[in-house]
Each structure stands twice: as structure tokens, then as C-alpha cells.
Amino acid sequence: MPGLENDLRELLHRHEVRADRIDELWQEVVKAHSSPGRHYHTLQHLEDLHAQLAEVRSALQDPDAVLLAIAYHDFIYRVSRKDNEERSAEVMRERMLPLGLPRPMVERAAEHIRATQRHEASADPDTDLFTDADLSILGSSRERYKLYTQQVRREYRRYPDLLYKPGRRKVLAHFLAMPHIFKTAHFRDRFEEQARLDLDAELKGAF
Questions:
Q1: Is the separation of the CB atoms in 176 and 199 below 8 Å?
Q2: Nearest to 113 by CA among 137, 98, 138, 96
């Protein structure tokens, strides 16, 4: 059983959620991330994020809240909308609160999810680790980064290059203008240098 699924099931079981309801919730996550329009924002992205955050689990104040955020942060993903993060956070709240999970944990998870809209520094150190992990793809190997750009382009295929490329360049320039792309020492040390190389290469049209 993949790591995310196993950990999410364990979390819900710990809070005495019925096994059949756990099955329903997991299948809902699977379905949401397996729709035809998704190429990067898939279950594999969730597993990658889960693996990145497993490395810093001991530094997390509330690993359970982060786990919920991993599972639901891209639950709603429509490239034409600007409220995907807020809607994803609401789905998570609507699923978890009726099950009796602690409200502070659920609300903290919702804040983690909302933070992925801008990936800005937060007063919550768990949020910073979570959003840094979400950006870790930017610091992957050149081949993996190239594949990522292709996957994202396919998700935006409804938009012609005339519209897509200027918007993409704006995003790349925004990240490169930051003093630091990654907010935490762990992710900065591991990914900052390569992320800047990857972003600069894409901005210059290397692929």
C-alpha cells in the first residue's frame, strides 16, 4: 500500500472512522486526482509530496494536519479558476469535521492548503515546510523538470501559446526575483540552486 494511503487510513482509523467510510474517502481522493485533464497534479504528485515531508516529519508540529493537507490540497483543480485552493480546503473541512476529527487540526490543514495559492512565508512553520515541499519539483533534475513543464502545459492545453507563454514567463520571473524560493533551510539547501538553474533555463527557452 502506498505511503500516503497507508498513513491517511491509519490517521482516520485512529480517530475511529468506520472502515467503509475510510475506503470511500480514499477512493474519492483517487478519483479526483485521476481525471483525464490531470497530468502533473495526480496521485504521483501527492506521493512525491508525502515522501518529501516524511524526511522532515520530526520537525512538524502537527504531522496529522500536514497529512490531511497533502491528500486534499489539489482535490479541486481547474486551470480556469483562481479559487482551487479555497475550494479544496473546503472539501477537506466538509469531509473531516463531521467525522469528529479535532477542529484545530482540520483548520490548520485548511490553512496549509490555502497557502499553496501563493507559497508565501507563513507564521506557521509547518505551512512553510508544506509549501516548500510543494515547490520541490522546481529543484528536480533537468530531465524531471522538463517533464514537469510538459505535464503542466498539457493541463493548460485549452490555452494557445499566445496566452500561455506570457503567463508562464511571468511565473518564472516571479520566482527568480525572490531572494529565496524556498523558505526553510531544509528545502533551500536541497533545492534552491537547482531550482534557479531550471527556472532560468525554461525562461530562456531551453525547452
A1: yes
A2: 96
